[in-house]
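Re: the request from the purification team.
They wanted to know what the chain is likely to look like in 3D before they choose a buffer screen. I agreed to run a prediction and write the result into the notebook, where they can find it.
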Amino acid sequence: MNSLHPRLEALGPAVCLPTVGMRLPLRLSPAAGSAEVALTLYWQLDAESAPRRVDRITALASQEADGLVFEALVPRGDLPGGRYRLSVTADMPDGAATTDLVAEVWDFAAPSTVARLSPAILRSVALRDLPRAGEHAAWPGDTRLVMREAEPRAGTSLDPRDLRQMAEAGALAKRVVRGYQVPELSAALLEEAVVFGPQNVVASRLGVLEDSWRGAKTMRPEELALGPFRTPRAPKHLDGTPVLTQRTAYLARKANYYHFHAEHIAALLQVELLRKAHPGLDLFALVPDYAPMHAESVALLGADLGPAVTLDGSDFSAARLVFPSAVLGNAERANDPLMAEALQRIRRNALAGGTAHGARAVYVSRLDATSRRMRNEDRLVEALASRGVGIFTAGGRSYREQVLCFADARVVIGPHGAGLTNIGFAAPGATLVEIFQASFTLPFYPRLAALLGCPYRCFTQRDGDEAGDPGSWTLDLDAFLAFLDPILARTA
């Protein structure tokens, strides 16, 4: 018998969330030989003499140098909100070990509770911080499935003439040319997870999945992360292992064309890869109720999504849920290679059922744009049309027709904007020509062109005096056409 009395300690806060419950990490030392630990939890309100509830559970433990590490997984059940004295006892062959804690059971229905509660107190967990699958074989908690390691990429190598002209226009070239890192392609595998409402806030007993809401904090206050818990509802349960492919709310009319492809379409391709890599998980995609154009895009992608389920905005739970990293985009503005692969697959599938009918050089118009308007774009369009350049506007076209408009293009031209995503549908090796404002140079499309194997050129317009109309700018037509004409001549 071990001469040392066993010691039990909590490794994290004892916080029980509405609907979700509590996941309390614990360590028992010295290390014992058993892989299972029998736990008894006594919940007692300060004003009461008898326990309000007693939970008896068994936890799987992983062996570490300084003891057994495991988690107490406790449902919220009928516990009312309040501060509890929580006594946790672990029964082992060598004797029992007990630790006494103060546990918070949150009830967010009261506005006063919400007002004093911050996301930090609520607890959150980030995908990047989850233990990598396989590192803790016996760990029963949430894990990270890694599909591709992070990899550094060289920055865009601009044509020296474009780089010089960018500098002369007063733009920050380093935004475009600096190296970057393609992030790890991974997925959170969460146990006993709940997804709240149309905002798709994800929580497990570790807390709120930070990646499911924090990335959108510039568009809404952080306190919205608490919103789903204020009036907790009984979530409907989904069998199998759903994969959430839409972060935050899906707003069909406001869905940015670039981000729809870079995040959602790429995530659908990641679902296919996950299903191939983990056939035993019974994975299937959770998808939004698509607008017709987006539904056509998904159909042309043709990814294996399993028996996909359409989200209806209600809460739901699952014994296991997957949150793929592709939905996140990246703070480094690093296009994931999955986006390029998805665009090329969509092009192939569109051509299998149709014929390319666009020009060899296509200009992506922003005449209907409400921001960053080019004040003399109508004159540019006239000059380009006289050179045989096709003028593309998306209005009134089906998604397949849009793809086929670019499928034969050898040159794609346009001001910076979501429409340049269509370079992914152009002929292999097509040249992308991007028009920048000096104050608005971003690396999205040079990096996408590099992933597609497409040459890239850019023209940077010096910022002018746009007094009275700060949302617009004027292109130096003569300088731009002198820049463009040799490119068109080489690809004629």
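For the purification team: The chain has three domains: 7-107, 127-140+184-329, 341-490.
Please add any questions underneath this entry.
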